[in-house]
């Protein structure tokens, strides 16, 4: 069965067996673990992973690829033909480890969608555009530090594991990819992500302006100990949590 890669689903299939082995080693699967793969495609990671597992669940949006996976007749594989962006992850029982070579066009919204299910997620191992991984792991003061860095680091320990060259895919993407490992923090600095998301979004809404300017509709200097003459990129995650708490006190 031939499959024509679909651009709208971000289909760049992994063909490099060494990279696939490196991904499996990074995940280090144990046979009884509850693993969920997003976007299995033709099964480049799925089938090597299944060799280590009693069972694996996958979510794939492309019906043709779902048919191809079904033809393999793997009893250990549960396939959800669904859009991961709207998928209700709570229907998967128990704690899950999430993995995937993610379609580049949905990576940020998917990470925010998964944030709603973080209590159920042990860890996540994702292939993403290297530029997105750089943003997620960036520290304050770095020019790639922004909303994605703060929101992900508030809830996960994040680590860039290794870089994956374009040649590892078919068709080849235009840019480099990287493997990101994210472990859910057992004691995050905040319980509710929504107010933090609001304040972080506002704070980074105008990168060149000070926090005083960006936050003027919600907070002024007399209401917080954080120096609002700084730019958002200078604040660590804990500082944003302080801003969020000060903002919530006003309501
Ligand atoms: N895992 C395969 C591999 O490494 O070769 C395929 C990776 S490819 C970059 C991304 C996969 O995600 C494709 O199979 C694509 O059809 C699927 N996909 C795209 N958008 C999706 C969505 N919203 N929900 C679930 N799967 C999606």
**Helix/strand order:** EHEHEHEEHEHHEEEHHH
Structural class: alpha/beta
CATH superfamily of the largest domain: Vaccinia Virus protein VP39
How many helices does DSSP assign? Answer: 9
Largest sheet: 7 strands, mixed
Identify low-pLDDT runs: none
CATH classification, class level of the largest domain = Alpha Beta
User: And the CATH topology of the largest domain?
Assistant: Rossmann fold
Shape: elongated
Proper CATH architecture of the largest domain: 3-Layer(aba) Sandwich
Could you say which small molecules are bound to this protein? S-adenosylmethionine
| Helix percent band | 25-40%
Q: Give the overall pLDDT as a whole number.
A: 96
Tell me the total number of β-strands: 9
Radius of gyration: 20 Å
Strand content: 15-25%
Number of domains: 2
Distance between the termini: 59 Å
Query: Strand order within the widest sheet?
Result: 4-3-2-5-6-9-7
Write the layout of secondary structure elements.
Layout: E1 13-14, H1 17-27, E2 35-38, H2 46-50, E3 56-60, H3 63-71, E4 77-81, E5 96-101, H4 107-115, E6 121-129, H5 130-137, H6 147-155, E7 156-164, E8 169-170, E9 177-184, H7 193-203, H8 211-214, H9 237-249
Parallel strand pairs: 2-3, 2-5, 3-4, 5-6
Antiparallel strand pairs: 1-8, 6-9, 7-9
The structure holds S-adenosylmethionine.
S-adenosylmethionine binds at residues 9-14, 38-41, 44-45, 59-62, 65, 83-85, 101, 103, 106.
């Amino acid at each position: 069965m031939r499959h024509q890669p679909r651009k709208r689903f971000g289909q760049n299939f992994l063909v490099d067996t060494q990279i696939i082995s490196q991904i499996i080693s990074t995940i280090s699967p144990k046979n009884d673990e509850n693993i969920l793969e997003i976007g299995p495609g033709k099964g480049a990671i799925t089938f090597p992973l299944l060799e280590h597992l009693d069972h694996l669940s996958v979510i794939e949006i492309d019906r043709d690829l779902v048919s191809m996976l079904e033809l393999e007749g793997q009893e250990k594989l549960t396939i959800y033909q669904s859009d991961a962006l709207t998928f209700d992850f709570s229907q998967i029982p128990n704690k899950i480890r999430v993995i995937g070579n993610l379609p580049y066009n949905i990576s940020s919204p998917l990470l925010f969608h998964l944030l709603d299910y973080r209590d159920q997620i042990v860890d996540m191992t994702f292939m993403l555009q290297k530029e997105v991984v750089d943003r997620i792991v960036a520290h304050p003061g770095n020019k790639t530090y922004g909303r994605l860095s703060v929101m992900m680091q508030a809830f996960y320990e994040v680590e860039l594991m290794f870089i994956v060259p374009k040649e590892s895919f078919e068709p080849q993407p235009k840019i480099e990819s990287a493997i990101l490992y994210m472990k859910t923090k057992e004691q995050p600095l905040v319980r509710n992500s929504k107010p933090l998301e609001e304040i972080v979004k506002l704070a980074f809404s105008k990168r060149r302006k000070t926090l005083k300017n960006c936050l003027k509709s919600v907070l002024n200097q007399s209401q917080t100990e954080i120096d609002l003459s700084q730019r958002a990129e200078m604040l660590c995650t804990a500082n944003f949590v302080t801003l969020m708490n000060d903002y919530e006190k006003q309501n």
